[in-house]
Amino acid sequence: MAWIGYDDSFDVPLLVTFDIVTEVFTSTPIPSAVCVTIAGAYQNKFVLSGHHRESHSMHIWVMEQVASESGKHCSCSEKYRLGIPPYAFVNFCIWGNEIVCCEKERKAGVEGKSKFHLKLFNLTARKWKEFPNISSAHDCCDGFSYGGSLVSLFNPQEILADLK
């Protein structure tokens, strides 16, 4: 199980994980320059995604197990960086090989009448798919990622071997 949290001072975002096999909690610092909004699975790897408003970009990182002198830990490497519109845009879940996003329609001079449109970014093809007829007058950024099976940050066979 994994979720996004913060350190005691709320300055450093962390990926907090609980390994069901070993019943151990771990926390891994994640990039703080970007507002990480979702965690999920892509190509059987654990991924994080977020956006950086100042540079108008969406980032996707892959978490992988790394061996070091002090033991095994998680490492976060950026896989994708995509340009996004400079206005209200939220990526809110990973669905298969696509990032589901919500984009705010811009109408010059019209306050309070904005609509939000559904967009998908295909990670394999690196292309956007827009759904202009699917819209809402409300911010539809409450999504979640679901995986049909658990994606472990660590190799369970290695963990079991370490326990023996």
Protein traits:
4-stranded antiparallel sheet; 164 residues; 55% strand; elongated; 1 helix; mainly beta
User: What share of the residues does DSSP label as strand, in percent?
Assistant: over 45%
Q: Give the uncertain stretches in residue-range form.
A: none
The tally of strands reads 11
Strand order of the largest sheet: 4-5-6-7
Percent of residues in helices comes to under 10%
Average the pLDDT over all residues and give the rounded result.
71
Draw up the topology in text:
Elements: E1 2-6, E2 13-19, E3 24-29, E4 35-42, E5 45-52, E6 57-68, E7 71-83, E8 89-95, E9 98-104, E10 116-122, E11 127-136, H1 156-163
Antiparallel strand pairs: 1-2, 2-3, 4-5, 5-6, 6-7, 8-9, 9-10, 10-11
Structure commentary:
It comes from Acacia crassicarpa. This is F-box protein. It is a single chain. The chain is mainly β and 164 residues long. It has one domain (2-163). Helices cover 5% and strands 55% of the residues. It is built from 1 helix and 11 strands; from the N terminus they run βββββββββββα. The strands form 3 sheets. Strands 4-5-6-7 form a 4-stranded antiparallel β-sheet, with no helix packed on it. A 4-stranded antiparallel β-sheet has the order 8-9-10-11, with no helix packed on it. A hairpin with a 4-residue loop joins β2 and β3. It starts with a strand and ends with a helix.
